Amino acid sequence: MNPILRVGQGYDIHRLQAGRRLVLAGVEIPFEKGLLGHSDADVVIHALIDALLGAAGLGDIGEHFPDTDPAYKDIDSAKLLEETLGKVRAVGFKPANVDTTIIAEQPKLSPYKKAMRENLARLIGLESQAVSIKAKTNEGIGDTGAARAIACQALVSLTTND
Questions:
Q1: Where are the domains of the chain?
Q2: Least confident window among 63-72, 96-105, 132-141
Q3: Whole-model pTM?
Q4: Region class of 74: left (phi > 0), else alpha (psi between -120 and 50), else beta
Q5: CA-wise closest residue to 57 among 13, 4, 98
Q6: Quick one: pLDDT at residue 1?
Q7: Residue 4's pLDDT band (cuts 50, 70, 90)
């Protein structure tokens, strides 16, 4: 049987707020503000979860991990990713590659991209070459451009399990 290829796209955005930790792709980034959300608000992992669920035909992050459920309050998004990967594998798929774009005016993310890439690859079970972390500014436009929010776009391809 020929392998099946599926592609999914995800997006997430959270506001920055003083007094919160900034966690992106499971890596804590030193900064005076963090992302506001019900969980740790890791926009990279949240966008990736939506991409994985979409590619597998399993809905979206809000259906599986609603922000109204106290069980997910301040949860490490890596745990949500692990659970999502289990759901994706249960319907016969596994990740082949991941491509992400983080949109943030501040902080500058270049010094952390390698650590984010390696951590995300480890969490997903891929070689680091199969994971891309890109960082862009929003050129001063909108909430991300005014450094009031950070967003992320993610693309993932899935193949059938062996």
A1: 5-160
A2: 63-72
A3: 0.95
A4: left
A5: 4
A6: 63
A7: confident
CATH of domain 5-160: 3.30.1330.50
Q: What's the chain look like in SS3?
A: CCCCEEEEEEEEEEEEEECCCEEECCEEECCCEEECCCCCCCHHHHHHHHHHHHHCCCCCHHHHCCCCCHHHCCCCHHHHHHHHHHHHHHCCEEEEEEEEEEECCCCCCHHHHHHHHHHHHHHHCCCHHHEEEEEECCCCCHHHHCCCEEEEEEEEEEEECC
Which residues on neighbouring strands pair with residue 14, listed in sequence order? 150
Cβ(87)–Cβ(154) under 8 Å?
Answer: no
Cα distance between residue 11 and residue 156, in whole Å: 12
